[in-house]
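Regression report. Comparing outputs from two consecutive submissions.

Submission 1:
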Amino acid sequence: MQNLGRAPRRKAARILRLLREFACRVRMKPLEFLPDAPDLFSVYRNLLQAPGVERRPGGWVYEGKFYPDYLTVGGASHAIFSKALKFCIGEGVDIGAGLWPLPGARAVDLYRGPGLGQSISDLANGTLDYVFSSHCLEHIEDWREALHLWTSKLKPAGIVFLYLPHPDCAIWQRGSPFVGDGHKWIPTPSVVRQQLAALGCAVVCADDGPDAMFSFFVCAQKSAAAVSLPVGQHL
């Protein structure tokens, strides 16, 4: 290029730069394939094309209501950690922890994160001080049996702390473009309270919400005379 004039050299340099950028883009995988990519990356492209969803600065409009982006990036549990840690003391687990386990808890998750491959079924009954779970129970079709299994692992006076999507949050309704069929049912504060009571757990703290994460929580304590049924038998 040293024999070229100044303008041709600039043009040639620009062409080479564009070629390098193009080659880099061709080799680059979509952002959602990066390690520990936020959940938003994997849904963004589909949401832009989903019927009934409109993009607005900082979030999405669905069924006439605005939902901020932070609702779709995962880690909803961070909003409840400070409250949960007032009750979740000692040895316990975070079921469905994903990439964001409750500090101090043993992570349990089927799909990702430090709890990958861990199962609460491997723990002995009556050995845990607490069971914490955030935005997990709604993914389980046979959730009553799952909740019975979880509470069976608690010691007498053990704590179960559940943080769940609020039923008024349309983007987390089964069948919405945001969750598809990933959510198997719609938790409500009253139904969750009733099932915990049936399992011999008394509510000690709760907030029916919705909070800033469009969620609610129920914290209950297992009684010494809690119901104990074989897994598979429903109340």
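Submission 2:
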Amino acid sequence: MKTILSITFVAVLLLCSCTAKKNQTSSPQDDSLAKVRAYLDSLDRLKAFYESKPRPYPEPLPDSVRARRLKNGFRTPEALCDAFLSALEKRDTARLYDLTLTRDEYLNWLWVEMPASKPIFNIPLEFVWENNWNNSVKGLNKALYNYGGKRLAFAALEFRAPDDEYQSFKLKMKPLLIAVDSAGNTHKLSYFSAIIEMNGLYKVVNYTDKKIVP
């Protein structure tokens, strides 16, 4: 009995020893997996860097930043929607563009806090604004084509994605404006790319011709 126990004890010791050596010695397959994991980790870090938001201002925010006022801004998103529907009915293109960010507001206030504004991307400001403006033109043309001249009343405003918060403003994402006509029919308008909230005022970032996917 003692002999059997002794042999078993020795076998356990040898097994533990072999397992330890196996764990200490990495196979080519283990090395490949380690390299893949390291590569994926580096991609995650790179992605996090590219998607991280610049913070150009000290904290707490300077008075000059907190005192910013959006031109033609509204106290509530609902008031902004009312103004949009009214201008849409009148086909008042100038008024409709007044509801969106100006060039200076977009480039000097919004763009500087966007991830894509980092120097590593080296995106020219004129390209940024031209792209934004072209999107607005396409989106507004579509809105005018579909609803220009029609009388619609505000019913509700939904946001189909969480708010996107930045250092000095917040973007309310995927706004869906729900309106009703005189016959009681419901219309879902998704012509705002986002609504910016800055220091208690709201404006449309720009118009879009892309449909919101719930």
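Expected: both submissions complete independently.
Actual: both completed, but the second showed a warning that disappeared on reload.
Relevant detail on submission 2: The helical segments are 2-24, 28-51, 63-66, 77-90, 93-98, 103-110, 125-147.
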